[in-house]
């Protein structure tokens, strides 16, 4: 079992980034709610604790405070930003209230390298984002770094192995941030770099065999990264005890169904059942143009089809899902302000209980980049491991308004051209998503000497790291030109191509 570094989450927007940086150093990290009792951390055998930053002030009425006993566990603690102020506040230092946040670049002058800053330059550009600041050191601490605005931007208590830093080493704007984590993990916590995807696969295969025994596992395969990697991993562990179900909902991209069959059935020899439900989906979508209603119908129909297909597939004990670590982290909301639902996302929640299946979630410990690394190690091709996200409702939300077979056919052909040109120009791998949208608008064009009154296709190409925000991609104009002229020349029924220059926010990535 890998050693654990606990990241206590105080609601920082960077908590997951901290956990990922630790794992990039090949040390296993786990995110815990800030209220987790010290006893739980002790029982789980954590070898180091990182206190995340957070939007709160230690003076706030509902300031999130950890179990104080974490400071008596005898394991090293690193407080970042709000974490440093917590140390100041809880260990008898003094924190001063501030009305404004210090935000952006600063320069850290290292006064004493010690173990945290071992082998680093004397000055570092660092990223700040904090309000309050420490004005008196807690007993036992010394200052090891200062910034323009703070005498105590970095502090240590060498005896108890407590460290605090005011800035954020996990964001790329901080120079040598990863080296600070490495010093903490290897120099201070004595961690071993034993979290590798090779090791993960080895243990996951053993655990899956143990969990499943001789039982049968079903997996809804969408062809996306998560379900594909889950399929490859399960197949390695339990071979023919795995049955994958691929639902052709008629809202797939060109060649998608064939590609899935070729890879999983012919290459991996997985027991793959393809359910052709296109007609049913289209029938239920007839006459519906409201985006939310379309999403609900598609989600509901998927569940109906999946459930019905199980009757013919036969009995199974388990249902596998490609749940990832960010889906299982209990989120810390400091201001009790749950984000409002902007779009209903399509998933199969609730299915396992209804069908009395036990859940198997082989990827639930992994971040997305780790899932890709596992997929690559298991022999999945680059086109699968690095494919763009594709929404559950598929082309159903990319044909705006009512979905019909004709419109889907036009969109598929246009989208295939965009995809082909993006791959050929090597741009596909550089962007987060690139796809076509069918606009239910007719515009006038000319073909030869003829008037051509036909549909409009929009090109949507965006860069993003997490889909929460996105920027429209400045593709080279000659590439846009090539895509546009191929679509208008090769796809009958399209007279015009437009390029979407909206970022998120205020727009969303998908148009519906
Ligand atoms: P929006 O349009 O909300 O999309 O900016 C953010 C990301 O989520 C994808 N998306 C979905 N993914 N089921 C999914 O699995 C859905 O229903 C769904 N809707 C949007 C979208 O492609 C983008 O990557």
Please name the defining characteristics of this protein:
alpha/beta; Rossmann fold; GMP Synthetase, Chain A, domain 3; nine-stranded mixed β-sheet; five-stranded parallel β-sheet; 20 strands
Describe this structure as you would to a colleague.
- With 512 residues, the chain is of the alpha/beta class.
- It folds into 3 domains: 4-188, Rossmann fold; 197-385, HUPs (Rossmann fold), CATH 3.40.50; 398-499, 2-Layer Sandwich (GMP Synthetase, Chain A, domain 3), CATH 3.30.300.
- It is built from 15 helices and 20 strands.
- The strands form 4 sheets. A 9-stranded mixed sheet has the order 2-1-3-4-11-10-9-6-7, sandwiched between helices. Strands 14-13-12-15-16 form a 5-stranded parallel sheet, sandwiched between helices.
- Strand 17 and strand 18 (450-463) form a beta hairpin.
- Bound molecules: xanthosine-5'-monophosphate.
User: Order of strands across the biggest sheet?
Assistant: 2-1-3-4-11-10-9-6-7
Would you tell me the structural class of the helices and strands?
A: alpha/beta
- What hetero molecules are in the model? xanthosine-5'-monophosphate
Report the sheet with the most strands, covering strand number, pairing sense and barrel closure: 9 strands, mixed
Count of the domains: 3
The CATH class of the largest domain is Alpha Beta
The end-to-end span amounts to 44 Å
Summarize it:
The chain has 15 helices and 20 strands.
Structural topology:
Elements (H helix, E strand, L loop, with lengths): L3 E6 L5 H10 L3 E6 L4 H7 L1 E6 L25 E4 L1 H9 L3 E3 L5 E9 L12 E8 L2 E4 L5 E6 L2 E8 L4 E4 L11 H12 L8 H16 L4 E4 L4 H14 L3 E7 L7 H12 L3 E6 L1 H8 L5 H23 L4 E3 L4 H4 L22 H4 L3 E3 L7 H10 L4 H4 L19 H20 L8 E15 L2 E14 L7 E2 L4 H14 L3 E6 L13
Parallel strand pairs: 1-2, 1-3, 3-4, 4-11, 12-13, 12-15, 13-14, 15-16, 18-20
Antiparallel strand pairs: 5-8, 6-7, 6-9, 9-10, 10-11, 17-18, 18-19
Bound molecules: xanthosine-5'-monophosphate.
Xanthosine-5'-monophosphate binds next to loops.
């Amino acid at each position: 079992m890998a050693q654990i570094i606990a990241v206590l989450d105080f609601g920082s927007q960077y908590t997951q980034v901290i956990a990922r940086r630790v794992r990039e150093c090949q040390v296993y990290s786990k995110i815990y709610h800030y209220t987790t009792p010290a006893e739980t951390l002790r029982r789980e055998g954590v070898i180091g604790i990182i206190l995340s930053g957070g939007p709160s002030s230690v003076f706030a009425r509902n300031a999130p405070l950890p179990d104080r006993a974490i400071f008596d566990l005898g394991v090293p603690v690193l407080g970042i930003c709000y974490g440093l102020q917590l140390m100041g506040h809880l260990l008898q230092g003094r924190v001063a209230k501030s009305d404004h946040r210090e935000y952006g670049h600063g320069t850290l002058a290292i006064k004493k390298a010690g173990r945290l800053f071992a082998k680093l330059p004397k000055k570092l550009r660092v990223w700040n984002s904090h309000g309050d600041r420490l004005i008196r050191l807690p007993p036992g601490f010394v200052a090891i770094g200062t910034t323009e605005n703070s005498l105590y931007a970095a502090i240590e208590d060498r005896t108890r192995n407590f460290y605090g830093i005011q800035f954020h080493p996990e964001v790329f704007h901080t120079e040598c941030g990863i080296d600070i984590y490495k010093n903490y993990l290897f120099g201070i916590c004595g961690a071993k770099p034993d979290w590798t995807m090779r090791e993960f696969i080895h243990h996951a295969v053993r655990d899956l065999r143990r969990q499943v025994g001789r039982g049968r596992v079903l997996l809804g395969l969408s062809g996306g990264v998560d379900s594909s990697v889950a399929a490859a991993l399960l197949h390695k562990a339990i071979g023919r005890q795995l049955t994958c179900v691929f639902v052709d909902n008629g809202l797939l991209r060109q060649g998608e169904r064939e590609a899935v069959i070729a890879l999983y059935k012919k290459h991996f020899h997985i027991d793959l059942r393809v359910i052709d439900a296109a007609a049913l989906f289209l029938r239920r979508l007839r006459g519906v143009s409201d985006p939310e209603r379309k999403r609900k119908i598609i989600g509901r129909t998927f569940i109906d089809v999946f459930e019905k297909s199980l009757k013919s597939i036969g009995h199974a004990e388990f249902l596998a899902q490609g749940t990832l670590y960010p889906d299982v982290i209990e989120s810390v909301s400091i201001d009790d302000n749950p984000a409002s639902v902007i779009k209903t996302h399509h998933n199969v929640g609730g299915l396992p209980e209804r069908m009395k299946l036990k859940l198997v979630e082989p990827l639930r410990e992994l971040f997305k980049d780790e899932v890709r690394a596992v997929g690559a190690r298991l022999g999945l091709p680059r086109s699968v491991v690095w494919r763009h996200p594709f929404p559950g409702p598929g082309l159903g939300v990319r044909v705006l308004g009512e979905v019909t077979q004709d419109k889907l056919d036009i969109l598929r052909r246009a989208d295939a051209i965009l995809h082909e040109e993006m791959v050929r120009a090597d741009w596909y791998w550089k962007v987060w998503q690139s796809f076509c949208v069918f606009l239910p608008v007719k515009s006038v064009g000319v073909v030869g000497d003829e008037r051509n009154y036909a549909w409009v296709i929009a090109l949507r190409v965006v860069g993003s790291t997490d889909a929460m925000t996105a920027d429209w991609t400045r593709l080279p104009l000659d590439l846009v030109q090539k895509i546009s002229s191929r679509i208008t020349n090769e796809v009958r029924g399209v007279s015009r191509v437009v390029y979407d220059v909206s970022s998120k926010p205020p727009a969303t990535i998908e148009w519906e």
